[in-house]
Amino acid sequence: MKREIWRETPFSVKLLLTTSFLMNLGFYALIPYLTLYLTGSIGWTLAMAGFVLSVRQFSQQGFAFLGGVMADVFGYKGAMVLGMGIRAIGFAMFAFCTETWHFFVAAILSGLGGALFDPAGSAAFAVLTPDTIRKEVFAFRNVLMNIAVVGSQIVGTALSAVDFTYLSLFAGGMFAVNAILSFLLLPPIAATNTRHSVWESMSIVLKDRRFVRFTLILMGYYYLNMQVFLTIPMLVEDVTHNKAYVGIVLSALSLFVILFQMKVTQWLEGYQQRLTLIGIGTLVMSMGLFLFTFADSLWLLLIDVFLYALGTMIAVPNLVDVVPRFAPKELVGAYYGFNGYSIAIGGSLGQVAGGWVYDIGFKLQTPWLPWTICLVVGLLVAWMLYQMERDTGQIGNDYPKIARS
């Protein structure tokens, strides 16, 4: 981030960047190794372990809309602190679970905590960050998230090698520390919604046809996004016959974002067609995935992953910047919460359908099948977002007026 932009960034936003980094460090240190712990030490099947993870995700994304609405009504700071505290309890609880139902309670608490702090945190970022530097701040946030992912692999590997209990307590501790930091240092963020009840707020979002359309289209983006957690690791292992290379490829993905995200954002800063940029980024991601069809070595895998990473670098800063441009100022949390359904549905399809198509392609000896579907999804998302921007009109600084009309 440029020094002048960093100087313009308010202290409260810098604090939010810090908490975002720490939360991602704790989250990505625990979640990958939770599956290994459940299938290894506990002796569960992979399907059962996956069910626990899906319960956590549904508990978060399924209730994020309500969580965002409540944050608008009762205040972002309170929702963030409460949500972080609940997730801290849920993550730490994994260390002491002895019965099956214990794990599900911990998963539900972890998800509900996220349903409170995630839309509230995103809304706080949007409200507290000046419009002139918001895209750069969101881009820097994406860099920090990827640094946290790389760091989490080191922490997760080290602590899980000693005892999963320590890893679980570390992850919970990260969220507890964030709750304390936010409570003590984050200035009060007054409730922005003083005119509408919870149900009225939800009704306003659902009646915003443009935003509902945008959220539905984004399901395709998250279909592609979730391949990094399932089919990409499977392909890397199938091509290299070495599980160690999976970590190398995924770390390289994060490293590319760390090195080039800010530069890509600077290159595109004069381009105001935000929806089109999200579509272009999604299309570049899908092209990187499609080229996996021809990857037969580690180097080709890394080249394809770079293209995939480039797509995320184009799409992500614009994706998070666009949501508050749809929303009336008093309903930013509600809009972020509803937008979470694109992750919940699109991400679930990406994991379930993506894995199923990959297996079908392997059985039918058509390895191009899953990656061709990804290319088609990318083309559709790019075309639909371009059409949406053309139908809506100007999407620059005047977009809030259009979206609220």
Oligomeric description of these chains: single chain
Distance between the termini: 35 Å
User: What is the mean predicted local confidence, pLDDT?
Assistant: 87
CATH topology name of the largest domain: Growth Hormone, Chain: A
Regions with pLDDT < 50 over 5+ consecutive residues?
394-405
Q: Approximately how much helix is present in the residues?
A: over 70%
Compute the number of helices. 17
User: From N to C, what is the helix and strand string?
Assistant: HHHHHHHHHHHHHHHHH
Number of domains: 2
Structural class: mainly alpha
Assign an overall shape: globular
Report the radius of gyration as a whole number of Å.
20 Å
Binned strand content: under 5%
Strand tally: 0
Give the full name of the CATH homologous superfamily of the largest domain. Answer: MFS general substrate transporter like domains
| Second rung of CATH, namely the architecture of the largest domain | Up-down Bundle
Would you state the CATH class of the largest domain?
Answer: Mainly Alpha
**Mind summarizing the main beta sheet?**
none
Description:
The chain is an all-alpha fold and 405 residues long. It folds into 2 domains: 1-192, MFS general substrate transporter like domains (Growth Hormone, Chain: A, Up-down Bundle); 208-405, Growth Hormone, Chain: A (Up-down Bundle), CATH 1.20.1250. 81% of the residues lie in helices and 0% in strands. It contains 17 helices and no strands. It has helices at residues 3-8, 11-39, 46-61, 64-74, 76-93, 100-128, 134-162, 164-185, 198-207, 209-225, 231-240, 244-267, 274-290, 298-326, 332-363, 369-392, 399-403. Helix 13 (274-290) runs antiparallel to helix 14 and helix 13 (274-290) runs antiparallel to helix 16 (369-392). The radius of gyration is 20 Å and the shape is globular. It starts with a helix and ends with a helix.
